[in-house]
Amino acid sequence: MRTSRPARAGQYTALLAYLVFLAFPFLWLVSTAFKPPRELGSLHPTWIPKDPTLANFRQAFDEQPLLHAALNSLLAALAAAVIAVLIATPMAYVVARRRTRLAKAVTGWVVVSQAFPFVLLIIPLFLVLKNLRLINSVPGLVLVYVVWALPFALWMLAGYVRAVPPELEEAAAVDGAGRVRTLVSVTAPLLAPGIVATGLFAFITAWNEFFFALVLLKTPEKQTLPVVLTHFIGAEGVADLGPLAAAAFLATLPSLVVFALIQRRITGGMLTGAVKS
Question: Which Pfam families does the record cross-reference, listed alphabetically (predicted)?
Answer without folding.
Answer: BPD_transp_1
